[in-house]
Specification:
61% of the residues lie in helices and 0% in strands. It is mainly α.
Length: 57
């Protein structure tokens, strides 16, 4: 993930993020994973990241 995208996530979320949630969100954006493939423990964080980035699933 580019530094610019990480910086935007910091601004948009304004809170601490789990690094793996960012990885899964990136994989979903690139079409490599689906939300259903995200571990349940991270799913809410990933959904929030995707919502903040205005990604439509």
């Amino acid at each position: 993930m580019s530094r610019v995208r990480l910086w935007l996530l910091d601004i948009l979320m304004g809170k601490e993020k789990n690094g793996m949630a960012i990885v899964y969100a990136t994989l979903i954006i690139k079409g490599k994973k689906t939300l259903e493939q995200v571990p349940a423990i991270l799913r809410e964080q990933v959904e929030q990241i995707l919502e903040d980035l205005e990604v439509k699933l």
